[in-house]
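input
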Amino acid sequence: MTLPTDWVRGLGSNDPATVRTLYAAHFPAVRKYVLQNSGTPDDAQDVFQEAITVLWLTVKEGRFDTGAEKGPGGFLFRVSKNKWLDVVRSAAHKKMKLVHDDRDLERSEDRFDDVEEQLVRLRAIYERMDEKCRTVLDKFYFERMDLASIAVDMGVEEESIRTIKYRCMMKLRAFRQAIAGDDNNEVA
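output
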């Protein structure tokens, strides 16, 4: 990747080398941040995977502004940080009891292969989602719009948007299980 935008083309075309490069270059900073803020290596992996997914979707939809962003690193770190802060603020995290694990926590090259495989699965799943779900979730999570604003923007009642968001999140949870490789839960 010699040009600053080569990674955009690589990610847009699902190039495994691009994913490996982004992972190797930017995961260490996210891992450090999560570990310094009461997280585990697995937590760091989870939020970084979600950030890669968000970056991939943003690039696929042509919404990544290479002029506004200095590159993928800042974007990935910002999304990871926000996702981690959401986890830390959640009630489930506050009730979670951390157990020290002495096993080797470093990930091998297999982790890179897992990311690539998950990216391929995500692409297929994303293409199966309906436009309304993508629109509502994009506006809520990526544009940080509240439900009332989304309702006005789409010309529907706020309660309808709340229902759509709920149903879409249920689909995404099922999709995430499918991405993680849990083939016992087929996505409808």
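quick obs: Residues 98-109, 183-188 have pLDDT under 50 and may be disordered.
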